[in-house]
Amino acid sequence: MLKVEGLSVHYGGIHALQGIGLEVPDGSIVSLIGANGAGKSTTLRSVVGLVKPTAGTVSWNGETLTGLPTREIVKRGVCLVPEGRRVFPNLTVDENLTLGAYSRSDKAGIAADRKKVFGFFPRLEERAKQKAGTLSGGEQQMLAVGRALMTRPKILMMDEPSLGLAPLVVKMIFGIVRAINQEGVTVLLIEQNAKAALEIADHGYVLETGRIILQGPGKELLADDRVRSAYLGEA
Ligand code: ATP
């Protein structure tokens, strides 16, 4: 299980995370929702060591991750799909996937995982030789997820996978998230699309200006009046 306890982050004078705690049990999907600037990306970036917290700890199966370099954290199976589909635009789809597996040497396993990625995303297989920069936004998001899967993650953390995508593509991406989870990968999802994120989640957390203000099973949060008025656009 991934456990975040008392996590605080300061950016200069900005107290972006103010002692948050959350748990992601093995095999579950947990969603963290919140408005722009609430601290969602900061949370994920702290978990993988890209941001140094000023207080608090992150642990994974009992081992403290806080203070470890990012590559060591990724090696333990904790992987982040960053916001904005950061694929390498001048490399092909195939080359981007190969880079995802750069720290691995098990050729057979890598080939099997590539096949699995193409199983999730047949569109990527059709475009294996195409430069990633010429893919559509949705295809680039598929590639970003596919590349993360090539690290063979135990927990996949996704930063706004639905951002800027058409509704049908969003639906497809969420379908894949569920399928990835059913294959045994734990998922921590952050989203502004609160409805889709809570529908898919076993458990949800609501982050507001650096604090967790509400948590509960995804379905309960969907029915919560505060969530409905602030995040689902309902009266
Ligand atoms: P969004 O949905 O808009 O991506 P978010 O919930 O992911 O928002 P964060 O990106 O974590 O929010 O930002 C939290 C706060 O920290 C914001 O006020 C942001 O301006 C600030 N912040 C984030 N990164 C930095 C940085 N590198 N330097 C200074 N301030 C930062």
From TrEMBL:
Domain ABC transporter positions: 2-234
Gene3D superfamilies (alphabetical): P-loop containing nucleotide triphosphate hydrolases
InterPro entries for this protein: AAA+_ATPase, ABC_branched_ATPase_LivF/BraG, ABC_transporter-like_ATP-bd, ABC_transporter-like_CS, BCAA_Transport_ATP-bd_LivF, P-loop_NTPase
Protein keywords: Amino-acid transport, ATP-binding, Nucleotide-binding, Transport
PANTHER family from the UniProt entry: HIGH-AFFINITY BRANCHED-CHAIN AMINO ACID TRANSPORT ATP-BINDING PROTEIN LIVF (PTHR43820:SF4)
Family of the protein in this entry: Belongs to the ABC transporter superfamily.
Protein name per the record: ABC transporter ATP-binding protein
